[in-house]
Design a protein that fits this description.
MutS, DNA mismatch repair protein, domain I; six-stranded mixed sheet; 169 residues; single chain; 41% helix; 5 helices; alpha+beta
């Protein structure tokens, strides 16, 4: 059985070759996600797997992996190859489609799991995006308070925050 390739399909049924060895990861991910829109795409790069864009939110949300921004403001969440079994198990348990791809093997799909009409990709992405967005805002407030801890008015700001948090009613 021939391996599935992660490129846009030609009308003849074949696959386009990667145009350049220097194609940016952002462009490659964009091409792959055109085919696998509702799948978490796990790309092996060296000794880590990476999920980009929307997939980075899902991986960060489900596993607590750090989400960072690369290139043209694209999200990236990585994890060591030793964690792949745990990631696949959890995605399957939560009924999230995924594909595993190795960059060294010309971006061939090495593993693929689909749940057809039961795929929860969109549902989990929406929860993840909301959670991470809110968490990021909370962390920014915390960082601001710590960085300004010696300012005279910081005590009043903290007291106002506490009043809001501990309000009854």
């Amino acid at each position: 059985m021939a391996k599935e390739m992660c490129y846009a399909k030609r009308s003849t049924g074949g696959f386009f070759e990667r145009k350049s060895k220097n194609m940016s990861i952002e462009n490659m991910v964009q091409t792959i996600k055109q085919i696998h829109k509702e799948d978490v795409v796990l790309i092996k790069i060296g000794s880590f797997y990476h999920g980009y864009g929307r997939d980075s939110y899902i991986l960060s949300y489900l596993f607590g992996y750090k989400r960072k921004t690369i290139g043209n403001n694209i999200g990236d969440t990585g994890f060591p190859v030793t964690a792949l079994h745990k990631v696949k198990y959890t995605l399957e348990k939560d009924k999230v489609n995924y594909v595993v791809i190795d960059r060294r093997h010309n971006y061939e799909v090495e593993d693929k799991v689909e749940f057809k009409g039961e795929n929860k990709y969109q549902e989990i992405y929406e929860k993840a995006h909301k959670y991470i967005g809110t968490s990021t805002r909370i962390n920014a407030i915390s960082q601001y308070l710590i960085e300004n801890i010696e300012q005279d008015k910081i005590k009043q700001k903290i007291e106002r925050i506490e009043k809001i948090i501990y309000e009854t009613g």
